[in-house]
Design brief:
CATH architecture: Up-down Bundle
Number of domains: 1
Strand content: 5-15%
Helix content: 40-55%
Number of strands: 6
CATH topology: Four Helix Bundle (Hemerythrin (Met), subunit A)
Strand order of the largest sheet: 1-4
Number of helices: 5
Structural class: mainly alpha
Shape: globular
Distance between the termini: 43 Å
Largest sheet: 2 strands, parallel
Order of helices and strands: HHEEEEHHEEH
Oligomer: single chain
CATH superfamily: dinb family like domain
């Protein structure tokens, strides 16, 4: 298996695991704050969708615990913004994105955010991973590095979401 095949397999496998773990996610779980302080998805009449995620800049150290909703939206927003800047028009930034305000909408939003990445991965080969692309938060990066950042985020936050669902059921 070449590098592109390995990345594709990891991407699809980790997405599939997280999709299974998201099955049946309720709004109550989505907004559950397991500790205080907590970052979450909150109503914001000034935001494009009427919702926004907590994310002051610069973030405090240590950052607060985050809800399932925050993690899922953060994951999808990272997909949208990194993808848009590396392979699309690069016009939007995080505040421009329509943050979903329900569990069901957030799961769909995350699934939709994966589609352009998966479409590119279907046709890309190992040499495409070396192509330098724009980066929304710094110097341009090889496409393979952008994909590995997205993959690291999906695995990392997917595991956190799975754990939070386990903890929620036992609280």
């Amino acid at each position: 298996m070449d590098a592109m095949g390995a990345l594709r397999e990891l991407w699809l496998g980790s997405a599939g695991r997280l999709a299974k773990r998201m099955h049946g996610l309720t709004d109550e779980e989505f907004f559950w704050e397991p500790a205080q302080p907590a970052w979450s998805v909150r109503p914001d009449p000034l935001a494009p969708s009427g919702w926004q995620i907590d994310y002051p800049f610069p973030p405090p150290v240590p950052a607060p615990v985050t809800t399932i909703g925050w993690r899922l939206v953060h994951l999808a927003n990272g997909n949208w913004i990194r993808w848009e800047h590396a392979f699309g028009p690069g016009e939007r930034m995080f505040p421009d994105l329509p943050v979903p305000g329900t569990a069901a909408d957030a799961v769909r939003y995350w699934a939709d955010s994966r589609q352009p990445i998966e479409e590119w991965m279907e046709t890309a080969g190992p040499l495409d991973l070396n192509e330098v692309r724009p980066n929304p938060v710094g110097d341009p990066l090889p496409a393979g590095r952008t994909l590995s950042i997205l993959l690291e985020e999906q695995i990392h936050h997917g595991a956190e979401i799975a754990l939070l669902r386990d903890l929620y059921r036992r609280h």
